[in-house]
């Protein structure tokens, strides 16, 4: 009996999966020119320490702080005006495309062919609007309408308009179906069905999602200055280019404060949505904020000399897209995928290590320190990390890997810590009580529970990172974005058009693939 | 002496859980703890398993006072004490082979334990432990694919794999059907006598206790009411122990939520 050593039946599939992952990961290092050995080299640590020391002391001159305050307000105003534009664009698109308000769904009539085509066309438009990242919209619009906050507002309006349209339509579809249909059968029009049947129950969810998007818009608007679209990002870009470390650290702090402020406001107002009074108050406050934002931004817009014919001329230059750059695009896509994959794997490892103290396993002091670190990593957007990483390790995809790894470590570390805190502690305690050391008790008692969750979170973030990796090149961190930035700088609009199409296809493919995977996993 | 409590009391969150417990078990002795729920049986076992430190009094386990030991020696002592819980503390997604192997973590080197997670190779001994609880065919299954009773038996297999000198069990058969409960208690007693381990088991079922254990300890309101050889446990003694309590059916499982809170508070 004791002589029989049964072998693990899953050992070959497991080994094969592991080898496959390694085989995919190994070329990523050379593709992205990311060399982990430099991290172990004391020389590069010394360089890094000097680099970090350059950020101190923080710049606190009065006129600089005045500039910062002004640009911070501009960032907030651009985000708010941008979201208002996105809602103006998204709401009618949602009304036109939502399945919940189609005549054949409401009344069981035969679907009208023309209306169906129109809805599909609009859905295609929505895919394009949200498939092009907002920073790319800003990059294009800066060239079309000039520097300043206007391209930022338009970029947020277009990209988020497509996103809001999709989500609004989905929210309408997820409501109890009978109500609108009952009204329709009494002879109400589709408008009336929306207002009387769907609106009252869907309103809190619609508002809550819009507020969440506003929070995202602030983060987006804060980095748009990197392409010349105003706000704190523009100041940061200038300070980085002048290598003025003190100003950079002040701006980073402002940045973090802005992000946590918007997170706080968004959380509070979404919680408040549970009460009826808040659902009335919030839109009123929102309108007030939008009016104030437009007033604040108006002088800049008036002076920018906005010209519609210039936009049309600019847009015409992009056609037809260049068709002779398939290998270049292929290379850009592979580089983008390699950056995102490597960045996500590094973030998984760093996140797992930081999650231990952040979940309170090594005492209170370590807990708060690691949480602070994770919040800083998470609060600074990847594009900003990329612009700093470019200074630290030079232009190219290695900076992109580093940027994605830093930002994603913050995100994953927080999520990992949460899973650790929510997991049942009994199995681990029982093992410690049977004399196992802390590491082994964790590996046998806790890891099996949290590991699959960690993996799921990482895959989800990887999907996000593929999208982020396409734009990091705008600040010089490799991938498709860098090619796009070059093409636009050289006024090669046809090539730029092809690259934008490649970005769209990549983001669409990733979306479809992840949807398919999620359906498969249930 | 394998286990000795000298007027031990335990307070948790300001409430007295156990008061003035004195008890000793010789090496290889087997005893059952009975008493109404909430009497403190679980806390008494957790004291013996070094989960709790006594508030007063002194405790001696396998020749040492655990709370006078350095962390290293405490871990060594703990690896010789095995505990079977009311609900087996197994991570849902872990495979049975690792769940059982975890019993010997205190005796393995860290490196080989981590290697075993990726490439389990000490499977013969694990399989042997599983065979004794009639679960050999589940070796490669995941714990969440097993029924509650099977999970409980995996928990028992883990402790058999550990081969402890002091075996503690907190209502190990509450989730099992009567026939399986009978077999399991017999198995525990046999294993304990084969390896000369001391065995202390808390049981809901007075019948099971009387059928298998030569020594019966009655606990109520955090105190030992009686500590008698089986022959002297008369029906009158038992009904006094449970007086004022609704008498339970032997196989009725305790409310798991309440008992978990017991563990926490």
From TrEMBL, chain A:
User: What's the chief localization of this chain?
Assistant: membrane
Transmembrane stretches in the record are: 76-100, 112-129, 135-160, 248-269, 281-298, 342-362, 383-406, 469-488
| UniProt entry tagged with the keyword Transmembrane helix | yes
GO molecular function terms noted in the UniProt entry: ABC-type phosphonate transporter activity
Key words of the record: Cell membrane, Membrane, Transmembrane, Transmembrane helix, Transport
Where it sits in the cell: the answer is: Cell membrane
Annotated membrane topology is: Multi-pass membrane protein
Start and end residues of each ABC transmembrane type-1 domain: 72-269, 333-514
Transport as UniProt keyword: yes
A GO cellular component entry from the record: plasma membrane
Entry's NCBIfam families? PhnE
Report the sequence similarity comment from the record: Belongs to the binding-protein-dependent transport system permease family.
Report the PANTHER family cross-referenced here. Answer: ABC TRANSPORT SYSTEM PERMEASE PROTEIN P69, PHOSPHONATES TRANSPORT SYSTEM PERMEASE PROTEIN
Q: What is this protein called?
A: Phosphonate ABC transporter, permease protein PhnE
What is the organism field in this record? Aquitalea aquatica
Q: What is the lineage of its organism?
A: Bacteria, Pseudomonadati, Pseudomonadota, Betaproteobacteria, Neisseriales
Automatic annotation (TrEMBL), chain B:
Query: Domain ABC transporter spans what residues?
Result: 3-246
Alphabetic keyword roster:
ATP-binding, Cell membrane, Membrane, Nucleotide-binding, Translocase, Transport
Q: Please give the Gene3D superfamilies that the UniProt record associates with this protein.
A: P-loop containing nucleotide triphosphate hydrolases
- Matches recorded under InterPro entries: AAA+_ATPase, ABC_transporter-like_ATP-bd, ABC_transporter-like_CS, MetN_ABC_transporter-like, P-loop_NTPase
Q: Which GO terms describe its molecular function?
A: ATP binding; ATP hydrolysis activity
Keyword match Nucleus: no
Q: What is this protein called?
A: ATP-binding cassette domain-containing protein
Say which species the protein is native to: Aquitalea aquatica
Q: What is the lineage of its organism?
A: Bacteria, Pseudomonadati, Pseudomonadota, Betaproteobacteria, Neisseriales
């Amino acid at each position: 009996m004791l002589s029989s050593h049964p072998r693990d039946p899953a050992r070959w599939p497991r080994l094969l999966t592991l080898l496959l992952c390694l085989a995919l990961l190994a070329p990523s290092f050379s593709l992205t020119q990311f060399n982990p050995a430099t991290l172990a080299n004391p020389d590069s640590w010394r360089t890094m320490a000097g680099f970090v020391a350059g950020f101190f002391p923080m710049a606190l001159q009065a006129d600089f702080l005045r500039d910062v305050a002004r640009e911070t307000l501009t960032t907030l105003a651009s985000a708010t005006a941008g979201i208002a534009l996105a809602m103006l664009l998204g709401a009618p698109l949602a009304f036109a495309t939502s399945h919940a308000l189609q005549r054949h769904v409401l009344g069981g009539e035969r679907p009208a062919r023309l209306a169906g085509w129109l809805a599909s066309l609009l859905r295609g438009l929505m895919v394009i609007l949200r498939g092009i990242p907002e920073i790319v919209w800003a990059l294009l619009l800066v060239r079309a309408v000039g520097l300043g906050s206007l391209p930022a507002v338009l970029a947020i309006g277009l990209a988020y308009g497509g996103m809001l349209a999709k989500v609004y339509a989905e929210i309408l579809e997820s409501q109890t179906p009978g109500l609108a249909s009952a009204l329709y059968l009494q002879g109400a029009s589709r408008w009336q069905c929306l207002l009387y049947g769907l609106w009252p129950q869907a309103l809190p969810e619609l508002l809550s999602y819009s507020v969440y998007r506003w929070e995202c818009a602030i983060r987006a608007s804060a980095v748009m200055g990197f392409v010349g679209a105003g706000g704190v990002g523009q100041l940061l870009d200038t300070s980085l280019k002048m290598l003025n470390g003190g100003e950079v650290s002040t701006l980073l702090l402002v940045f973090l404060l802005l992000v946590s402020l918007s997170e706080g406001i968004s959380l509070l107002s979404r919680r408040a949505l549970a009460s009826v009074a808040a659902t009335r108050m919030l839109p009123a406050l929102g309108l007030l904020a939008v009016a104030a934002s437009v007033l604040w931004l108006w002088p800049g817009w008036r002076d920018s000399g906005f010209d519609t014919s210039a936009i049309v001329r600019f847009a015409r230059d992009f056609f037809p897209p260049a068709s002779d750059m398939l290998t270049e695009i292929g290379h850009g896509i592979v580089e983008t995928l390699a950056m995102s994959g490597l960045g996500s794997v590094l973030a998984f490892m760093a996140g797992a290590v930081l999650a231990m103290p952040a979940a309170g396993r090594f005492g209170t002091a370590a807990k708060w320190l690691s949480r602070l670190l994770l919040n800083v990593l998470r609060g600074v957007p990847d594009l900003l990390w990329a612009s700093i990483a470019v200074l630290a390790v030079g232009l190219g995809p290695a900076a992109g890997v580093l940027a994605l790894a830093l930002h994603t470590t913050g995100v994953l570390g927080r999520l990992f810590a949460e899973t650790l805190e929510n997991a049942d502690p009994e199995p681990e305690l029982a093992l410690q009580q049977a004399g196992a050391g802390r590491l082994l008790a964790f590996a046998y008692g806790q890891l099996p529970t949290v590991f699959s969750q960690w993996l799921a979170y990482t895959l989800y973030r990887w999907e996000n990172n593929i999208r982020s990796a396409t734009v990091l090149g705008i600040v010089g961190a490799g991938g498709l974005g860098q090619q796009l930035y070059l093409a636009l700088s050289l006024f090669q609009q046809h090539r730029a058009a092809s690259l934008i199409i490649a970005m769209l296809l990549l983001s669409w493919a990733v979306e479809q693939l992840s949807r398919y995977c999620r359906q498969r996993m249930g | 002496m394998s286990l000795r409590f000298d007027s031990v009391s335990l307070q948790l969150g300001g409430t007295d859980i156990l008061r003035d417990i004195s008890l000793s078990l010789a090496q290889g002795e087997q005893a059952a703890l009975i008493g109404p729920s909430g009497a403190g049986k679980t806390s008494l076992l957790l004291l013996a398993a070094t989960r709790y430190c006594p508030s007063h009094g002194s405790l001696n386990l396998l020749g040492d006072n655990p709370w006078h030991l350095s962390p290293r020696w405490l871990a060594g002592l703990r690896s010789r004490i095995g505990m079977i819980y009311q609900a087996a503390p197994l991570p849902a997604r872990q495979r049975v082979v690792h769940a059982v192997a975890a019993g010997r973590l205190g005796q393995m080197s860290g490196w080989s334990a981590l290697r075993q997670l990726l490439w389990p190779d000490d499977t013969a001994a694990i399989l042997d432990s599983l065979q004794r609880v009639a679960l050999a065919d589940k070796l490669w299954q995941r714990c969440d694919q097993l029924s509650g009773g099977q999970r409980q038996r995996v928990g028992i297999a883990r402790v058999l794999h550990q081969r402890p000198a002091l075996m503690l069990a907190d209502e190990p058969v509450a989730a099992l059907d009567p026939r399986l409960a009978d077999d399991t208690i017999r198995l525990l007693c046999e294993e304990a006598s084969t390896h000369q381990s001391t065995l202390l088991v808390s049981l809901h079922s007075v019948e099971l206790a009387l059928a298998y254990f030569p020594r019966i300890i009655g606990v109520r309101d955090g105190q030992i009411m009686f500590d008698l050889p089986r022959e002297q446990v008369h029906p009158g003694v038992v009904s006094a122990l449970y007086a004022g309590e609704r008498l339970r059916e032997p196989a009725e499982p305790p409310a798991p939520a309440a008992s978990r809170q017991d563990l926490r508070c």
